[in-house]
Specification:
heterodimer; A: mainly alpha; 70% helix; globular; B: alpha+beta; 20% strand; RNA_pol_sigma-70-like (chain A); sigma factor activity (chain A); transcription (chain A)
């Protein structure tokens, strides 16, 4: 149910963007702006700067929509990659480092320990949904998806053999899927029961 | 290749997370184009991460959109005519010193006319742009308005039905299945004060071919026809049906298509008494 809604939205936004219709930008902002911020926020961790990055990302999507290949990935996967790369470029930039010199998130000198020691949910922009995953699963998604860790770095960080990173990632995403499915099943169910009770 | 094993290895997750070396990535892409199961699994991983991002979405400040649209607006309209497209510069002034004045005046006037002309052109195109935007906003607004009106109407109707159904004088009469159709059921909301009757088929299977359900109100003088039920009547629709006073019971029979003036009681499906 939800995935058809996601597909429908993807098709509309994609079509408008390909037609270079400014309405496409409005729809892109409306339907994906928040989700893209959820990719940018964990990297940047300063809401206003995140929104500047989002601004650049939206323009980049607009300009490069011709390069999107629907055979290879969903629209959001492609956009999320642009967003994450833009966020990473931003924190590597000199101006950002100067601006946040007191902060400890410089990727080039990562302070990895905070992840395992303090639950990261108190940081800006770290997923609420992720906090409901098992610790092991949560940290692998955080490192690989919401941060800029390679497989090797993630293995070091988590003290795992390199070979288990893939299977760990799979188990994490399977758990995430179950979690999402449970939420997706509930909402339509609630809607249907209300509909039944009131008869319209 | 063992596809199940390949999927279980987690390599597809790392592919979607963009954490594979180029060679491994190309391999995944090749397998995905050869095996629909792998393609489907990738799509499903992508959807999960998309749903995760959506669950965590933080709505950006609307000013971000305004700024983005403004920079699109700068780039979008076709470039206005530039100096290079203007007619070539004036011919050199004639040698006769007495003649240069009228020429210069004429040239200046021509230049002024050109400036005015192109100035007006660009005003005109700005106006056309704004006009276009205005028209499209206007038609958007009208569409939304019409949608709102329809929604409001159906909401009002729903509210009225809800008011009647929850009115203290309303009795809910459960029409229970007869031996002909033990699992069928329906409900009637009967309000003798407001003179309103509502009907809902809570569980009526689709009628057999050539047959149609007919609703009856039974009073002291016998059954009265309240109409036949549409074939595609949804079990969740609350219908307003003709109101009769002093009804003792409601019933549904299965009749030939179009209904009958009097019921065939051997085809009784559900019945319920007004208490």
């Amino acid at each position: 149910m939800l995935s058809t809604k996601m597909d429908e939205r993807q098709d509309i936004v994609l079509r408008l963007l390909q037609q270079r219709d400014q309405e496409g930008m409005r729809q892109l902002f409306k339907h994906y702006g928040g989700a893209l911020l959820s990719i940018i926020d964990p990297v940047i961790r300063q809401p206003e700067v995140s929104e500047e990055v989002l601004h650049d990302v939206l323009l980049k999507i607009w300009e490069n929509i011709g390069a999107y290949d629907a055979e290879k990935s969903r629209l959001f996967t492609w956009m999320a990659r642009i967003a994450r790369n833009a966020a990473i470029d931003r924190i590597r930039s000199k101006s950002f480092r100067k601006q946040s010199k007191t902060e400890a998130f410089d990727v080039t000198v990562r302070t990895h320990n905070e992840l395992s020691q303090t639950p990261s949910m108190d940081h800006i922009g770290v997923s609420k949904l992720l906090t409901r995953l098992d610790d092991n699963h949560r940290s692998i998604i955080e490192l690989l998806y919401l941060r800029d860790f390679t497989q090797t770095e993630a293995a070091e960080e988590l003290g795992l053999p390199l070979g288990t990173i893939k299977t760990r990632a799979r188990r994490a995403i399977l758990q995430l899927r179950t979690l999402l499915q449970r939420e997706m099943v509930w909402l339509p169910f609630l809607y249907l029961s209300l509909k039944n009770i009131f008869g319209y | 290749m063992d596809i199940t094993k390949y999927i279980a290895s987690g390599v597809l997750e790392l592919y979607v997370l963009d954490r594979l070396e180029p060679a491994e990535r190309r391999e995944v892409e090749r397998y995905a184009s050869e095996h629909p199961e792998i393609r489907a699994e990738i799509a499903s991983i992508e959807s999960s991460l998309e749903a995760l991002a959506e669950a965590d979405a933080r709505m950006p400040d609307p000013s971000v959109l305004t700024r983005v649209l403004a920079s699109l607006g700068d780039a979008a309209p076709p470039a206005p005519p530039t100096a290079s497209t203007l007619p070539p510069a004036a011919p050199p002034p004639p040698a006769n010193p007495l003649n240069w004045l009228p020429w210069t005046v004429a040239l200046l006037m021509a230049a002024a006319a050109l400036v005015l002309f192109f100035g007006r052109q660009s005003d005109r195109s700005a106006y056309d742009d704004l006009r276009g935007q205005f028209d499209s906003l206007q038609s958007d607004y009208e569409r939304q308005q019409a949608l709102c009106d329809t929604t409001e109407l159906s909401l009002r109707a729903a509210e009225l039905r809800l008011q009647t159904v929850t009115n203290p004088a309303t009795t809910g009469i459960l029409l229970a299945g007869t031996p002909n159709a033990p699992n069928s059921s329906a409900i009637v909301f009967y309000n003798p004060v407001l003179n309103e009757t509502f009907f809902r088929a809570t569980n009526l299977p689709p009628p057999p071919a050539g047959k149609q359900y007919q609703l009856w109100a039974i009073d002291a003088s016998g059954p009265k026809d309240l109409g036949v039920l549409a074939f595609n009547l949804s079990n969740s629709n609350l219908l307003s049906v003709p109101h009769l006073s002093d009804v003792a019971a409601f019933a549904i029979t299965l009749e030939d298509v179009g209904g009958k003036p009097t019921p065939d009681l051997s085809q009784l499906q559900v019945i319920g008494n007004v208490s």
